[in-house]
Amino acid sequence: MASTNIGDTTAKVFAELLSGPMVDIYVGEEKRHWALHRNILCHHSAYFQSHLGDEPKKKVGKIELLDDDPCAFELLVKWLYQGKIDDVSDMPMERKWEYADVCQKLYVLCEKIELPQLKNFAIDQFRKGCNEAGLVPGPEEMKPIYDTTPPNSPFRKLVSRIAARQIMDPDSKKDASTYKICFEGSPDFAIDVINAIRVGAGGRLFEDPTEEPGCTYHEHGNGQLCNGI
To answer: What is d(CA 155, CA 115) in angstroms, rounded to the nearest whole number?
Structure first.
């Protein structure tokens, strides 16, 4: 697969990539359609190469990516032909979060079609978009990451650290229950968040619960006479 940016290819190579048969690709529930060059798809992605076959003159049918996002695929098309995607820093404030969300979906798409270089671009734009918009993903955005990426995914590491920071932040209204759907959907999420909290705590321990005074663990109302130890 390609190891250099498409923008750095020679004119001859680029012309060859833009020759040959086209492939019909349908994306999303609405089956939005693109017709893209087979050569350029296979140049970038082992996924497309395996689906389209090794023989360049083989009659090409269609590829369906019905679980993926058409807006994310738009960014993929730009990168396939230009070697870059838009920079969130150049966008007005009201578009930054929306673009970050699309970049998350682009990352999931790239995980499927095996494009590590574009995954790196996507996660960088996602982080930058969150930072510049002053927003972070919620559990609804985090859950798909754990549903569609492998255990060692950098995006899992990122969102679990975001969740951990929100839980630890004394000024945040979020606590562990905020992420209930993530905990229920993936034990890995729970493990990653707890480990992130441990790292973020910097080795500081809370009080030993076996040494806490009074009736901390008794069942009775505040101020009610306690007959315990």
So the answer is: 14
Q: Tell me which residue of 23, 70, 19 sits closest to 45, measured CA to CA.
A: 23
Q: Give the model's confidence band at 223: pLDDT under 50 very low, under 70 low, under 90 confident, else very high.
A: low
Task: Express each pLDDT in 174-186 by its tens digit.
Answer: 899 999 999 999 9
Vertex 5, ends 74 and 99: CA angle to 5°? 30
Residue 181 to residue 184: CA distance in whole angstroms: 5
Are 88 and 132 in contact by the 8 Å Cβ rule? The answer is yes
- 3-state class of 143 per DSSP? helix
Give tens-digit pLDDT for 79-127.
Answer: 999 999 999 999 999 999 999 999 999 999 999 999 999 999 999 999 9
Chain centroid to CA 159: how far?
A: 8
Tell which residue, 177, 179, 149, 148, has the closest CA to residue 162: 179
For 59-82, b/e burial (b = at least 16 CB within 10 A) is ebeebebeebbbbbbbbbeebbbe
- How far is Cα 192 from Cα 114, in angstroms, rounded to an integer? 24
What type of residue sits at position 202? G
Residues pairing with 35 in the sheet: 24
E-state strands within 28-183: 32-37, 62-65
Q: Which among 118, 144, 152, 105 has a CA at the least distance from the CA of 47?
A: 118
Query: What pTM value is reported for the model?
Result: 0.86
% of the chain at pLDDT higher than 70: 93
Q: Is the dihedral of CA 205, 210, 215, 216 positive or negative?
A: positive
